[in-house]
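Researcher: We're teaching a course module on how sequence relates to structure. For the next exercise, students receive a sequence and then see the predicted structure as C-alpha cells, so they can try to spot secondary structure elements on their own. Here is the exercise chain.
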Amino acid sequence: YKRQVSTQSTWGVNVVWFGESLDSDVLASTQAAMDRADLALVIGTSAVVYPAAMFAPQLAHAGVPVAEFNLEETEATGVCRWAFQGKSGEKLPEALGISRAELAAAAERAGLLRRS
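Model: And here is the predicted structure for the students to work with:
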C-alpha cells in the first residue's frame, strides 16, 4: 500500500488509487503471506479490482478457506467458503462476533489503521 489518506472519520487507511500499480515488493510479500495463510478475508473491492481480485480464487484453489465481505456478489463469490453481503464495517464484526470498536482496536494494533 502506498499512502495514508484522510477520511470523514478519524481513521485513515493505506490505498492504491485506480490506475496505479502495486509495488513489486508488496506483491511479493502478499504472495509470501498467501503461502502461509490458514484463512483469508477478502473485503470490499479486493474481490473485483486486479491484481487483488486474483487472490481469493488462488487461495480457494489451494484449499485455504476464504470469506468475502462485499456489498454484492462478485466473480469471486462462488469460490469463497463464506460470502457476506452488506457493509463490511457491519458484517465483519458481526461475522467475528465482536464489536466495531474491538475490530478497530485490533486493526490499529496490527498496524492496518492509524489515527489521522
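Model: If you want an answer key for the exercise: The mean pLDDT is 82. The beta strands are 3-4, 11-12, 14-15, 40-43, 66-70, 82-85, 114-115.
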